[in-house]
Amino acid sequence: MIILSVDTSFDDTAAAVIENLAIRSNIRFSEVSDLQIYGGVVPRLARLSHEQNLPTVVEQALKKAKVNLSDLDAIAVTVGPGLAIALEIGIAYAKELATKYNKPLIAVNHMEGHLLSFLANPPKAGQPWADQFPALAVLVSGGHTEFVYAKAIGEYEIVGQTQDDAMGEAFDKVGRMLGLGYPAGRLVELMARKGIVGKIPFPVPMRQVKDANMSFSGLKTAASRIIEKYDKLTQQDIADIALGFQTSAITHLIEKLEFALKDKEVKSIILGGGVGANREVRHALRSVARTHKIPLLVPYSQKLYTDNAAMIGVAAYFQAQANDFVTDFSTLDRQSNLSFPRRRETSI
Description:
5-stranded mixed sheet; globular
């Protein structure tokens, strides 16, 4: 089954072609230089970028995959969560193509894409997946941080989530305080590698709360108060603060993960979302997985952690297997606050 997938959930314009679970192309256009100028995403500029670049990105995805629109079995598009005025560009374009070429349309939850991104395979490669469920998914991105109990593909339940900032958002905010620019999550990790362990400790949030919910805003406040004490930050100061913040954030995530895992039948831990590209996050999660004697399942490529259309195609593939198509294009609209649980009549 060949699917063209489109994602315009935030600032990146993305399109991919998936054949079953094999990625034939995965194209992403990012306005990183503009974001650095403004210090973050400007919604109206993100919308304009999608309008200008989506046709070209789709064309590049088809060309790299060596397929034509007429060869497709379906078209998939992210409907949420995300920026409303960004989502609507991808939805409108997908509707237009599906109507013009008489193709089935699949509406995909962006976060389900992150959850299933570990199933994307390089071309001609095989990867078993059916025996990995039920699983506990750790979804950590710039907009969302949540633990999702995946009983099966298409049957999900949120068992813990952040009560304020997402983990990736906290990394970016602290990075900006340290003068690292935007996006800063990756730069915080790199600076932390140069930090002195224990030099600047941060509090670990919500230790008195015995559940799987999280909070990262307090770490942002703690960073602000620490930084205010310095007349001028040296590179070593920045590294020490970055390490203290990162250590506390990851410790918090892992402690709450243990609550999420408690009393659940789990065959694997799944990692998805942009923060998953952080090496220390992966190391900490692997340690938890080893303790529970289950595997940690991660995407095979760094490109699949950040927002991308290939993961949307993977989710769409399983929806197609469950006959989960849009039946009336006129009713399909953006769902900026779309969330789990999402239970299909037929889970896989």
